[in-house]
Amino acid sequence: MSALNKTIIAVAQKLPTPCYIISENLLEKNLQQLSIIQKKAGCKILLAQKAFSMFYFYPLIAKYLRGTTSSGLYEAKLANEYMPTGENHIFSPAYTEKDFPEIISICKHIVFNSFSQWKRFGKEALAAGCKCGLRINPRFSTQEHAIYDPCSPGSRLGITADKFSGESLKGISGIHFHTLCEQGAEALEATLAVVEKDFGKYLYDMKWINLGGGHLITRQGYNTELLIELIKHLRDKYDLEVYLEPGEAVALDAGFLSASVLEIIDNDSHTAILDASAACHMPDVIEMPYRPNVVNSGKPGEKAFTYTFGGDTCLAGDIIGEYSFDNPLAVGEKIIFCDMAIYSMVKNNTFNGMALPSIAALKKNGQIEIVKSFNYNDFKNRLS
Ligand SMILES: *Cc1c(COP(=O)(O)O)cnc(C)c1O
Q1: Is the Cβ atom of 283 under 6 angstroms away from ligand 1?
Q2: Do 80 and 106 touch, CB atoms closer than 8 A?
Q3: pLDDT per residue of the chain (384 residues) written in tens, 0 to 9
Q4: Ligand 1 atom closest to Cα of 51?
Q5: What span, in angstroms and rounded, lies between the C-alpha atoms of 319 and 302?
Q6: Which of 221, 242, 248 is nearest to 230 (CA)?
Q7: Please, how many CA atoms are within 13 Å of residue 370, restricted to the half-sphere of its CB?
Q8: Two domains, one topology: 3-22+254-380 and 42-251
Q9: Can you tell me the distance from the alpha carbon of 348 to that of 278, in angstroms, rounded to the nearest whole number?
Q10: Cα of 320 to ligand 1 centre, how many Å?
Q11: Rounded Cα–Cα distance for residues 244 and 214 (Å)
């Protein structure tokens, strides 16, 4: 068994379930890698808060990254409150008159999704000293997850090249695109070729470009040399400041979700019912869909005892996946899901009155801190 698995199993034994366990060490390892890219490529990297908003760790993140990006007012406020220094950027498909004054008081880079939004809100943003950018849609898909593909036909995200004709770019200082999802630098290279072909003529007049997220820089085998080369090319050719705003890469593989076996049901197959739910605690398992890894488990049939994991809800489809183990599972046994820092806590819900998992930090010195626990009120207070 790997040293990491041993550590996590020991930590999980000391904690209640369900519980997220976020490792400071693993998070910092990712941050160090990102920080090296920043230095070598001369770019600025922002945390996309929508993937990971555990602000307990914002002081650590601020040591390595340049700032944050937000999807709307609430994320922007969170960054403003808890990210010690740094730039706060924002992109929303549509801003509202109600939120915009506060947004421009805390975000200094505002990205607009259409010329109509730019015309409605641009003046106010410029007057507040904000740098304004446009999100483009290069209409170039590099991935198969349709729900995560902003370049799919009819996408509402980004301005297509044809829409630029006849529009003035006076006041616009940046271009933004976000089209990747869990991808390598090769997908960025291919996308940039299209961006340069269709939008290159505008780039000479810009001050900055934001390459969005979806760069899985901290995954083993990521081609960092190519990424650095691509960033340098943009800086040299167009004299641009280059931003990246990964979410997933920041906290990739840095967190776990510990759950307990509540019951074993033997119908056509063996099902273990857990106090963690796909629908409530890891909705990407159903949405994407994917099968998260579980510590010390194998693929179905690989080890002697195979189980389907299901949540403690009444949703028939609340199924996490099939896993096999060397020994039969027992009620009360802990099951530890991997890579549960990103797109988990931020997506949690209390469907079926399910309890929200606690959030624990495993510190560098080995100490465990329960950062947050939830109770009945967290369910009740959102409903009336
Ligand atoms: C989701 C998103 C990101 C972060 O994407 P990851 O896949 O988590 O790296 C960055 N920018 C925008 C505009 C996004 O929508």
Answers
A1: no
A2: yes
A3: 899 999 999 999 999 999 999 999 999 999 999 999 999 999 999 999 999 999 999 999 999 999 999 999 999 999 999 999 889 999 999 999 999 999 999 999 999 999 999 999 999 999 999 999 999 999 999 988 888 899 999 999 999 999 999 999 999 999 999 999 999 999 999 999 999 999 999 999 999 999 999 999 999 999 999 999 999 999 999 999 999 999 999 999 999 999 999 999 998 889 999 999 999 999 999 999 999 999 999 999 999 999 999 999 999 999 999 999 999 999 999 999 999 999 999 999 999 999 999 999 999 999 999 999 999 999 999 999
A4: 8
A5: 19
A6: 242
A7: 12
A8: no
A9: 10
A10: 24
A11: 9
Counting from 1 in the atom list of ligand 1, the atom nearest the Cα of 180 is 7
Question: Tokens in use for 290?
Answer: 């994917």
Domain regions of the chain by residue span = 3-22+254-380, 42-251
Gap from CA of 49 to ligand 1 centroid (Å):
9
Question: What's the CATH superfamily of 42-251?
Answer: Alanine racemase (3.20.20.10)
How many Å lie between the centroid of ligand 1 and the Cα of residue 245? 7
325 lines ligand 1 (CB under 6 A): no
Binding residue per annotation — 284? yes
> Which of 134, 155, 245, when mutated, tests ligand 1's pocket best, judged by the most ligand atoms within 8 Å of its CB?
245
124 labelled as ligand-binding? no
Please give the CATH topology (third level) of the domain spanning 3-22+254-380: Lyase, Ornithine Decarboxylase; Chain A, domain 1 (2.40.37)
DSSP-derived secondary structure letter, 117:
H
